[in-house]
Specification:
This protein is α+β, with helices and mostly antiparallel strands. The protein is 25% helix and 30% strand. It folds into two domains: 92 residues, SH3 type barrels (Roll); 31 residues, no CATH class. It contains one helix and seven strands, in the order αβββββββ. The longest helix is centred in the first third of the chain and has 36 residues.
Length: 144
């Protein structure tokens, strides 16, 4: 009987520790997400929840930013949010990415050597890829 009471006490204490440490565990998982996936790095311009600013520090528990106004000027405020929120809230990285797309050589065309033209599909946020027809007797590898 005494052993059952002791086991119940240990289980209650373990449950309380788990509830209290949930935020700590989420912050550590958020930090692992930042270091492995790298959705942003120090110096990037991000929007997260109501925060908009430049990342100045990333540590195991929180990310710190210098807030910017709509014109991109510093407001003088420093914001910090726990890394655990990265697991449950969307993030926008507004940093300009250079070198994301590898330019093709002039006249290289598509994968089958045919000329390619891309046009913006208004309202959908998509680019449509158009490719010239293949010469007679040659099939095009681009499917519509």
């Amino acid at each position: 009987m005494e052993i059952a009471g002791f086991a119940l006490s240990v289980a209650a204490v373990a449950g309380a520790i788990l509830i209290v440490s949930k935020e700590l565990v989420m912050c550590v998982h958020g930090y692992l997400y930042v270091t492995v996936v790298q959705p942003y790095k120090i110096g990037d311009l991000i929007e997260f929840n109501q925060f908009h600013g430049r990342v100045v520090d990333i540590d195991m528990f929180a990310t710190t930013l210098v807030e910017l106004d709509k014109a991109g000027q510093r407001t003088g405020k420093v914001a910090e949010f726990p890394n655990g929120l990265l697991l449950t809230h969307p993030l926008i990285n507004s940093q300009v990415v250079v070198g994301l797309f590898k330019p093709r050589a002039p006249g290289a065309g598509g994968s089958d050597g045919l000329p390619v033209r891309a046009t913006y599909q208004g309202g959908t946020g998509c680019f449509l890829r158009h490719q010239a027809s293949a010469p007679a007797g040659q099939a095009s590898t681009l499917s519509s």
